Amino acid sequence: xxxxxxxxxxxxxxxxxxxxxxxxxxxxxxxxxxxxxxxxxxxxxxxxxxxxxxxxxxxxxxxxxxxxxxxxxxxxxxxxxxxxxxxxxxxxxxxxxxxxxxxxxxxxxxxxxxxxxxxxxxxxxxxxxxx
Length: 131
Prior knowledge:
Helix content: 55-70%
Number of helices: 7
Structural class: mainly alpha
Radius of gyration: 14 Å
Distance between the termini: 22 Å
Number of strands: 0
């Protein structure tokens, strides 16, 4: 991610440059917290868009930064705090999605809904098989 695109949070910026690291760590954390995430579908749609080969690089970079922030073990509001824990993650994700909303397609959203319906373990296997 270039300095102009950085949101000023260096750990997330560095992690976003490691696409495979984001992919692995994303699924691990999502499985642990999905039941507590009211924005799980948006998060998954952003994930599918970020790893879609048709998505422009600058959009991928923005979404990977937001996904990297989600998987960081530390952030501004600790995820373990009841009711507030994921508010910062949701804000970062909502901002990224708003910036690139035109690139998150109906197919990305349908894939997100299907993954949530099937369960996370099947969705992870499907994504790893596609890579």
